[in-house]
Task: structure prediction
Amino acid sequence: MVCVALLALLFGGSLKSATDFFNPTDGGGSLLDNAGGGLGEPLNVVVSGLSSPDVLTDDGIVNYARAIGFSTECFGIHLGDPQSANLGDGNGPQNQTIELRQDFGDSDIGTCLESLIGGNHFRVFRQNGPSADSGALFLAVSKEEDVSEGHTIVPDGYDIGRDALVAAAVGSTSFDGVTYSTTARNVTGLIAAGSQGVNHGIAQDGIVTLLTVTIV
Ligand SMILES: *[C@@H]1O[C@H](CO)[C@@H](O)[C@H](O)[C@H]1NC(C)=O
Ligand SMILES: *[C@@H]1O[C@H](CO)[C@@H](O)[C@H](O)[C@H]1NC(C)=O
Result:
């Protein structure tokens, strides 16, 4: 009884709750997306549901991505199929909402450069289903080889990609008149370290970095 009252107090009496995120595994989901062939990319960065609501929209995450050195894909050309993820929120597997690529300092043509020479990129999945509506964004971040290598991930590319994104994100950033303050915290225990089930057989260290992004 006390427990229920406490939960109701914490969560405002509904599942649309003020929380960083729900563990996808608790709802039958996974911290690996589905890249085909039974393998997946780790969802190695989470943008907290406690971030400013405007950051968690499609337009909001694109503007934020630009503030930290990414842009939407080169002229909308997409190399490769969308991936899907089950975030354990009752929606089942859902395709990525968007994919963003490192823009090398030019948010218009830089992503074309990324497609040619390789770089950091990420896919975005939103946890907003009926049973776990945190609003958090789960990102599958990786660093790729150049196009001649067929856009595969560099060795250790998941951890490298995550750490590079986080390094660019933490602190104060801005784009198009919006200024962000970002803090990071590492979370373990969501996904086992190693290469089990991981696309391209590239091991990852089992760390998921939680970003809380506040518009200031
Ligand atoms: C994901 O996108 C692919 C290609 O556009 C489509 O065939 C598939 O049905 C989509 N899957 C989901 C779960 O929406
Ligand atoms: C998270 O873990 C990575 C890899 O060990 C490390 O480089 C980074 O500094 C950690 N970040 C935080 C906020 O603890």
